[in-house]
Input
Amino acid sequence: MRKRYAKTHVKGGNKMKKMKKLLAMVLVIALTMSLATACSNKKEEATSTTDPTQGAAQSTDSNESKDDTQSAEKTKVVIWSKDRHDADFITQKVAEYNETNTDNIEVDFQIYTDNFQQAIDMAFQSGEAPDMFSQETKVFESHLGSGRIADLAPMMDDNFKTTFAASIIPGLNEIDGKIYYVPVTGTTGRLFYNKNIFEKAGIANPPATFEEMVADAKLITEKLSGEGIYGFASNMKNPASALNRSLLYQVQRQLGLQNGYNFTTGQFDFTQYADLLAQWKELLSQSAAFPGCESLDIDPLRTQFAAGKIGMYISFTHAEPGVYKNQFPMTEEWGVVQIPTLGGQVTGAQGFVANGGYLFNAESKNLDAAWKAYNSIFMNIDFQVEYYEAGLGISIVPAVIEKAKPAQIYIDNKDLLIGTTDAIWPRNPQDANATAFVLEGMDSNATFASMFYGDTDIATGLQDLTDRYNAALKAGIDEGTIQPIVKSGFDPMNPSK
Amino acid sequence: MKNMTKPQVLSTRNKRKIKENLQAYSMLLPNLVLFIAFSIYPCIWTLKFIFYRYSGLASEVPKFIGLDNLMRVFRDDIYWKAARNTFVYAGAKIIIIIPLAFLLALFLSKKRKGNGLLQSVIFVPTIMSAAVMGLVFYLLFNVYNGQINYYLMEWNIIKQPINWLGAKNAMETLVITAIWGGVGNYMVYFIAGLQRISEETLESARIDGANSIQTVWNITLPMLGPILKIILMLSITAAFHDMTNVMVLTEGGPNYSTMVLSLYGYSFFFPVSASSITLPQYGYGAAVSAVSAMIAGIVTVIYLKLSKKLDDVY
Output
């Protein structure tokens, strides 16, 4: 009996083992099959691309069947913006358009403020780029040669070309006869200051020279730091972001250089920055600056300015009015003036960025729908008038300027507007050949930051920077990947001529 | 069986062996395919670009430049600053986190009321999103309205706020966040190791007159040898490629004071705002990553050689 039990028990055990093996095999086959299926799908796709007729037939079939079942489905146009200051206004306009348009188009407006360039790069690499996205200098420069940015010229009618003629700037957005974006607003850097803090510190007027600005910042910090109020702040967590909105413009005005580049000699020369940087180092020292500037981003800086903790900072004219009206409402009064230079000396016009444009994804299937939506929403003159009047951006479109009554903020702060002292600067060889200009080591902004916060000596650091930039330029010219840019008789006061 | 000839027996054995191997290989296959697709292939792809100048743009044809990228690594001051930072970060993190995790495990592995809850609380940071962690620590450590400075000043420990994220202190702050985020994980490993030590062994040590410290030093620690070896190796490799923590809190700044090798390599593929790189440089990024991997590999090999003794279990 015991023997028989043992036998059946062993038999049962074997059965269990077999079952387990069977189950394991089934699982393995299922996994392998799923992988194989994935591969075979890829293969089908590959076949369809190698055999265009078959591929076309397949895609038409699938489109037809889709059309049958989803004839009422709207064409979705995806737009990525990098701006938050006008988000409420644009979101409302987009919602109105989605409700009223008769073209069966639905706009999906998304805001990507952080790492915008990276988000665009990755979206293109993964084939999920939006149909339209905010024009941003670095994004434009890095994708210009890739064929991914659509030429808008063929889609523009005569009326469009006439209305926005002033926005088509050869060498900027019109390259080799192709128009890649249409800027409608302009922005530049200015000094923003808190009038209440100046009054509290006993300072009558905003600074007219850079030396005065440093002295004012020190005075505010000395008198008011006990209340948590400091003289000056800069978003130095990202040196490029901080200095491209301040020092870059200051150098154009003071030295007539475009990020160290002298258009007359065709060479970089950072050594001329020495006196300016010495003052900057003072400005960012503990005796003048808001604590923790080296780890401060622009939005936390703005929240502290709105809270009345920062006396002065330098930023863009297009964004700040909207920021303190909508994003971080400010109760204290702020003012704006030109960026001061050493001794008030001005040898060049200040550059301004023609912005507010959108780039179109050349790979988009909805290019026509995107162009329609773009024209109806963003290029509508009434929209732009309302935008300008709301103080969300400074228009550079004559038809808009003529029709609009500028927002009170612009009437009260004339320095917010693009004026006669501002001009479009040409791109230097580094900006014009972004991918070919290979600089070894730290770039100019990171080097300046290391002078402010590290132990890099200003004089030797600037000489090294000059040498490295010129070496990168020479290497590119020697290789034939960079075209030299020399403009004899270049006048920094009229840089676009 | 008796009637079977020798070759017949062999062929049955071979068949069984082949069957068993086939089963094992078929089990391995899915993993192997994924490993090749997502680990081996990207490595080869990266290695190829060491010899090219390429920004990653579809329109650009990669240009063969020989060993230029590798030579540039050796001239690159920021790279060597990042290497120094990596060693400081890894060293400080390991020196603190391992003993701390061991002590926590020792204390919390005992059956005591509330220990389970404490274990879970200490483990929670391990499963938290790095981005959330970065934001929380920024709010805690920022100099102008951070909670740490607020309480330190409130309790009269400091008179002036400390610039925790400034160039001078940012590395210490990063190490603190890394310890907070990782100690729970290592504690769990140690608890697993402690549970393998039999109560009888510890009991006999106590009967022999050993006090708690002597028991830990002479019995527990030596018996944890093999698992300690693994924990140390994991912590070394983790510390060498740890970059999420750095990326979300300081992005390697200010002034590259917290730039580590892995983030530096990454920034050439996906530029980060605090660095000088504004456009991708796949070729140089590949060279940076390869040299960094070599350094990490050398450190691991040295460690494995030095730690052979830890295998000897008493």
